[in-house]
Amino acid sequence: MTIATAPESEKDRSPQRVRHEVRLRQLERLLAGLPEHFKLGIPLGKLASPEEIADVVLFLASDRSSHVTLQDVVVDGGATLGA
What we know:
Layout: H1 15-32, H2 35-39, H3 50-61
């Protein structure tokens, strides 16, 4: 994934601009991610698939969840249990 940025002149190398570029590169690496690193803190040992998250959304949008009120549903494989 590449984050688009506005074109810049070679003269625009201010410290703020350089810090901004470094943060963008860090963000790109974070978004690319390393699934093996993320899985270390997840008790189920795997990242949720889009289908698994969609199943929760479909349940909450269905009549089967009609008695569920004011709840935060966390789909993270248990990663936030210790938080």
